[in-house]
Amino acid sequence: MTELRFVNNMTVELVRSMGDDKSIIQAAQVSVVGGNDGEGAKDPERFLSYLMRWRHGSPFESTAMTFRIQVPIAIAREWMRHRIGWSYNEVSGRYKVLEPVFYVPDHDRPLVNVGTSAKPELAAGDGTQEAVMLVNLNSTYGYAWSAYESMIHAGIANEVARFALPVGTMTEFYATCNARSLMAFLALRTSDAGMSHPQYEIEEAAHMLEKEFANLFPATYAAFVKHGRVAP
Amino acid sequence: MTELRFVNNMTVELVRSMGDDKSIIQAAQVSVVGGNDGEGAKDPERFLSYLMRWRHGSPFESTAMTFRIQVPIAIAREWMRHRIGWSYNEVSGRYKVLEPVFYVPDHDRPLVNVGTSAKPELAAGDGTQEAVMLVNLNSTYGYAWSAYESMIHAGIANEVARFALPVGTMTEFYATCNARSLMAFLALRTSDAGMSHPQYEIEEAAHMLEKEFANLFPATYAAFVKHGRVAP
Amino acid sequence: MTELRFVNNMTVELVRSMGDDKSIIQAAQVSVVGGNDGEGAKDPERFLSYLMRWRHGSPFESTAMTFRIQVPIAIAREWMRHRIGWSYNEVSGRYKVLEPVFYVPDHDRPLVNVGTSAKPELAAGDGTQEAVMLVNLNSTYGYAWSAYESMIHAGIANEVARFALPVGTMTEFYATCNARSLMAFLALRTSDAGMSHPQYEIEEAAHMLEKEFANLFPATYAAFVKHGRVAP
Amino acid sequence: MTELRFVNNMTVELVRSMGDDKSIIQAAQVSVVGGNDGEGAKDPERFLSYLMRWRHGSPFESTAMTFRIQVPIAIAREWMRHRIGWSYNEVSGRYKVLEPVFYVPDHDRPLVNVGTSAKPELAAGDGTQEAVMLVNLNSTYGYAWSAYESMIHAGIANEVARFALPVGTMTEFYATCNARSLMAFLALRTSDAGMSHPQYEIEEAAHMLEKEFANLFPATYAAFVKHGRVAP
Are A89 and D172 inside 8 Å of each other by CB? Predict the structure, then answer.
């Protein structure tokens, strides 16, 4: 039998990007100066802060970023609910036999909901709870994978056999977005502004995305943080 | 322990709709006659066929339909890749404890891929294959549900426990679309025109959608079929 | 020569709609109760306010409204910058000879910018300014229409002759949107929340849209106003 | 009085781009090989042709291009009807006083519609028609600009004065798209495949766009042409 791999981390890797803070300013300035250099070039941070403050969102769309992402299926499902300004290509469980890689939360992952069901607020579990989780996830992953393999070996099509695989199975996809759609993602998938209560795993992934974004567009990122982490 | 339910059928139920063939004609005619009655009113079928033939797509967007849909998670994932002109609200595995309802293909479902991996073409399995599928899916669903329940009972949050649940678990969602985005779905998710090789289950659901669509917009539907089942 | 018509008002007419406050609640509740009646049914206003407050936007997309709109071309251009959740069908200056109907602001329309160029703030003009505007707009409309007609009469194609027509020419279009995309429009195209500085004409049209919206979805509308007129 | 400029050409200038044929292949291959190099790398042209042939559209979205575009307002209006995968920032007639640059078709531009109104088919005009067009467009532009300037000089706000300006006035905008949305534009805005009857000017601009696209993505472009110039 194939050996299973259990992972407790996700991957968000920048593949390529287009544009920087200056491209956003350039796109915004066409409105007021017809393509020539204007005010924005003198004090880029102030200009970007102005755009963010007054919700002039379209200039932030004149950029692009492609990421390679590895997360559990349950998290990919949340991610792909973002439709506007996001494009996806994902590993297909129909076209290929999937890999036995499964997500198991690590020790730091809070396990108990001390909030309400509508607004989950998670706190650390005790040792027993961690043990219950580990034994149940690991054994279910093992059981499901063994069933999947049996079906594949019996000649059953990938697309049927995969019904057995848990949503904790790791998946991989390419995602292309722009600075505006990325900020909309951060606004909903991080809890930093106190507005959202995202699942732990997608927030962890969002913070990796945020780090790449801050590197590529430092002044835009600063303006985003300054104005309450709301997408313009 | 909770009793599991195994189902082999999906649900696509029309909740409400807006518009009919005439509304599409009315929207299209504003282009040529400025809102008054024109040619289209005299021969609706011919007019709609003309719009379809020459890919005048936007008038078909002046309509709306909301459906309540029950399919396995794996199929919901394919469905929600449709971003344009589709809105979704789905049962949340974070906000509630899910129901133990699982998808098991029935006897008619072809089990063996006799095509290539990139273009799957499914044929009937033999008795052994069907038995292998049944025993593996059913037992994995049972095992996973039991693990899920154990974690829930131990006080572990829904969002963590759900990692154990297979993508064959049934989910439920509301989907709102328009005649154009619905036709784009049919073009990709049915094999009737020989262009697509959709998974059996999503094609079955697509045919239920198609039936409702044909009822609501008979002349539009006839034009869609006549012109090769390509969305305008 | 054809007689010109000068108008100082716009039209926003509801053609048809789908859904009400309850449909939004129904779509939202599938997340937590799997399609059955739940909390929301007991206190609809509170539930909708909750959705709005915490930016749960997707349930508001399970609705639809179609409007017939008559505004000057310059305003139609601003309107059609709204891409997400909006569909359009407009009178075509290629397919038909346009009507000689032109927009002339009425006495109430503020004429002078006392703000900055980036954030226009308009105040009333004096009598001279109003006269200058009236004579210049009216005579240009007359001149342009006469040139347009001469070209049409000489057998020149509509699509060429129309280059002469001013952006003050009235146009007509059908627009289909949903409660969420309509609120996004109101957030940007009204100044009520102090965030936007829209052009007078589009704000006037937005207020007509708002009135229809408030009639169709009273509790949703109340929640929108209560939470700062920001689209969820 | 300011001197007017009459132009008979448009501008489509590539500002920056992301990705190439290989990026599209890379995104597509994640589906079948989980991110590693696969078949596609060996014969890129055949692989891209396969994607195009079977309408696997999403990999083409993992790219981006920003263009600076100068066209008459009437053509910008047609352009901005493309909502999906297109972002725009345009010169604002509210925030600035516009430039007196106007579009006048050159000698090659066909002037007479010999098709139907719904499917215009343009043929060359005679000398008289060309003269009628030139005198009427030029004089209307002059009249309208003079009215515009008078209003501006009288202190009337930009946003009011601009109602006088014809849709033949040149405008400028930045547009960001991806390979898929660009191909959808070419499919509708060129007549090469016999499916569309676009206006002469937007087809001219589309061909400039096409040239840049063919340079950046030669194998993708070849596949687009080979499979009937239909967007995947």
Answer: no
